[in-house]
Design goal:
about 500 residues, about 30% helix, seven-stranded mixed sheet, 26 strands, alpha/beta, five-stranded parallel sheet, FAD/NAD(P)-binding domain
Amino acid sequence: MAVALPCFGAVFSLENTPLIVSSSRYEISNQISPQNMSTQSYDCIVIGAGPGGYVAAIRAAQLGLKTAVIEKESPGGVCLNWGCIPTKALLKSAEMYNHFQHASQFGLTAESVSFDFPGVIKRSRGVVDQMTKGVSFLLKKNKVDIIMGQGRLEPGNFVVVKNAQGEETAYGYKNVIIATGARAKTFPSLPVDGERVITYRHALALEECPKKLLVVGAGAIGIEFAYFYNSFGADVTVVELKSQILPIEDEEVSKALKRNLEKSKIKILNGTIVESLERKGSTVNALLKTSDKTGDKTGEKIEQWSGDYCLVAVGVTGNVEGIGLEKVGIRPKNNSEIEVDKYYRTGVPGIYAIGDVIGAPWLAHVASHEGIIAAEHIAGQHPHPMDYGSVPGCTYCQPQVASIGQTESQAQAAGYAIKVGRFPFAASGKAVATNETEGFVKVVIDEKTEEILGIHIIHAEATELIAEASLIRSHEGTASSVLNTVHAHPTLGEAVMEAMGDALGRAIHI
């Protein structure tokens, strides 16, 4: 069978002829034998319709490229279907429930407040359905072809797609963007069964609130779920190998969050590993080992834990399997990350990769920006490479945590002479009026140039406030330029300005 692929201006024979592709590392030979050979060929095919993939596809189409996106589940990927969006819906329910319980502080009466846990989960899934339809609409609006199925690369510039019925169709391409995302990382010592030992994906569909929950890992995912389940009455224990929760955040902020979570009766064990984990019926048993260092002495504390659920939240690993990487000459780093350059080229001509599959930071907004850069590069434009030092990070528990740039310790380690400014929300008129005085803004600036090295926020609205910080960093603002910018009053955003004033010795309201 011979099929013309107009975007290549050539005819490829697929009749008993192996296709050979060369890479700088090895030669690969492979026969494509799909049940169907599409006459469709594309300027750009995107494998994966998550926040990186669908954004890349839309941008490519906007730039005049004939584009298709391949998705095996639902448009929006893990972020929309099993991550960012449904978790925020759950967390909002927890936040509202907590507000109702403290209605009297606002002069209101809310009696016999209770919750319907399956209803909370149902609302979350409803939000997902609405957003998934929105992504599909945007793809169609921008004339991106949506191809449902599992995509894999084949030599000769083909992507073969296997649909739900097991039928395979091959599509030609000039360029392909791999955006296959990542999944929860698991270990043999933490045997996930999807029933009692679960990951975030299982947790999002769990229709009962655990009575006693062990959370392994105190990154953003672990802390968000710890807060969520604790809000609805679960007895929650969090274990973290490192010395602080949210290990990538500023130490001062992490300590403040830990104190707040512990006030809510969440037990947090730092410097702790799960020595063993086993399930017996509806009970999960774990042996926890905590390093105990006092002065010059180091010891260990062993603790037995038993409950009904364990959530494993120890990071993610890239989805590099089953997509044909080895066939086209791509060998993932550590069997989980595709290596790319600043424009997300893999080293194999015409093949790009973006998002979680290329490694940290595993953030939806990072994947989206990478997708835009890759699409613009494919279209022959000259996009500005990503500044990974100015990527905001957010954790959506209560109080929320958000940051951008360097922590205080990172700035010191980099050799900067620094000034640090802080502004507590207890001194903010808007925060007092809304009864949300927990937390502070912390800024780290270069003593000589007033360059803003980092901004760190802990507050009920931290993830909204970080937008100003991102704009400041992207426009290379200085502490003085922020302080000299008129901020509306009363607003929470004033806290960022006030923290700059504190760093410069010009604080007014503290």
